[in-house]
Amino acid sequence: MAKRIYVVGNALVIQDNGAGTPVEVEIPKRLVYIDRVELDDNANIRFRYIDNTKDGVHRNIADILLSNAVTLADATYNATTFETFFRANLGA
């Protein structure tokens, strides 16, 4: 199933693409980054975050194939559109 990836306010949100599906991830976007090597080499979006409650440990929060990633408007991301999204929205 496709995963919606979008930002609401200061939060990154990930949820299944279906009517009434619950949110799987909602986390402060400033703490999230992606594993660029994984994206470039495997077309896999690996979201990671800096866990400030654990002395800054970096943790995986989601792995989503780029081909299964969609916007809030259900448009499929490609490498260019996803890069635009993450550069504009994730990290400090």
Structure, described:
The chain has 92 residues and is of the alpha+beta class. It has one domain. The strands form 2 sheets. It has a 4-stranded mixed sheet, with no helix packed on it. Strands 4-5-6 form a 3-stranded antiparallel sheet. It is globular and about 35 Å long.
Please outline the helices and strands.
Blueprint (H helix, E strand, L loop, with lengths): L2 E6 L2 E6 L6 E6 L3 E3 L1 H7 L1 E8 L5 E9 L3 E2 L8 H11 L3
Parallel strand pairs: 1-7
Antiparallel strand pairs: 1-2, 2-3, 4-5, 5-6
Quick structural gist:
The chain is α+β, with helices and mostly antiparallel strands. About 20% of the residues lie in helices and about 45% in strands.
Largest sheet properties:
4 strands, mixed
Low-confidence stretches at least 5 residues in length (pLDDT < 50)?
A: none
- What's the end-to-end separation, in Å? 30 Å
Q: Mean pLDDT score, rounded? A: 90
Oligomer: single chain
What topology, given as strand order, has the largest sheet?
Answer: 3-2-1-7
Nearest-angstrom radius of gyration?
A: 13 Å
What brief labels describe this structure?
92 residues, alpha+beta, four-stranded mixed beta sheet, three-stranded antiparallel beta sheet, 7 strands, 20% helix, globular
